[in-house]
Amino acid sequence: MKFEVAPIVDPPVRGLAVMLNVATVAALAFAAVGAFVPGQAWLGATAITTIIAVPLVRVAMLAWHWSRRGDRRHAGLAVTLLLLVAVGALLAAAG
Amino acid sequence: MSWAEFSLGFATSVVGSLGGLGGAVILVPLLVLTGTPARLAAPLGLVSVAAGSLSAGARQLDERVVNHRIGVTTELFATTGAVVGALGSGLFGDRALEVILAVVAISAAIAGGRRKGIRNKPDPSLTAADVGEHQLALSGVYQLGAEFVPYRACRPLAASGLFTVAGLLAGLAGASGGFVKTPATTEVMHVPVRVSAATTTFTTGITAAAGLLVFAIQGRIDLATAASVCAGAILGGRVGAVLQSRLSPPQVRRLLSVVLVLVGVLLLVRP
């Protein structure tokens, strides 16, 4: 496969890999303590909140990164994706 | 009970990441077969999916094999399916969810057994500086050994139906839907298997988050059990990633397919 014009390679999103590494260690620690230490169920809830929040924060970071680099179409798609998740949560809360 | 769910989360995450189908597609049927009601097992499956996605994320970013633009574009359909599935799953009885799970397990077995090899060819003019995804397009370059392979996704709208189905399965049954997403990305959109698998790992985390948010609001997540599965799945995902380079993925996939068919049949015939 050959590209007609030289495409611009997107640089990595700054801070994303660090966030994922920190979140993985934190979620593992929270989940392990929440599961095996009596009376620490709130740490289990923190672990579940972490694994729900991180993919959504990642999409928000991508939307910001893409909008700053002029890729408004994909930034718009990322924002739409986050709105869809929010609508789902609102429907669940209403139901 | 914590150790039982931790061990199940760990073992299914190791096996699932080795076979490339994700652990939830094995975890949820096994939880149901060991006595967990299907409507409570589905959220635990999504916990396993989200934990596995998080666990693999940083390594895949380092290798620059995830195409985020392809992921976000296709995920619009999968997330819609996941939200609809999670909201609608409360309308189904446990027996109906068990039958859906059985069909999902057998479908995953078939998809895993039919996985294809390499389609895109390396381009000798490309270098390490070209690796990554391209701005303003659904294309990129990835490294395959010492060579560099360009790719461009085609027909994202044609694959949209399959992504919606993958999301529905995640919301209804707690499976990651990766066994639908990866073949849809490789066979319909012509994205290389390695990029497709990594991008699917990224997107299954979003699908799982959307479904889990609905389940959390509905009060269907048992926190102690979910924490055990989460810890097991994160560790299992890491161990699976290390073992992946030492074992033959096709052999693991074939073994996994046999196990999935067995589990699917057991779910269908149980009283």
Mean pLDDT of chain B: 86
Biggest beta sheet attributes of chain B: 3 strands, antiparallel
Which class of secondary structure composition applies to the elements of chain B? Answer: mainly alpha
SSE order of chain B, as H and E?
A: HHHHHEEEHHHHH
Q: What's the mean pLDDT score of chain A?
A: 92
Secondary structure: number of strands of chain A:
0
The beta-strand count of chain B equals 3
Q: How many individual helices of chain B?
A: 10
Which residues of chain A sit in consecutive blocks of at least 5 with pLDDT less than 50?
none
Helix content of chain B: 55-70%
Oligomer: heterodimer
What radius of gyration of chain B results from the CA coordinates? 18 Å
* Overall body shape of chain A: flat
Query: What summary fits the major beta sheet of chain A?
Result: none
Query: How far apart lie the N and C ends of chain B?
Result: 25 Å
Alpha carbon gyration radius of chain A: 18 Å
Q: Work out the strand percent of chain A.
A: under 5%
Order of helices and strands of chain A: HHH
Unreliable segments of chain B (pLDDT under 50, ≥5 consecutive)? none
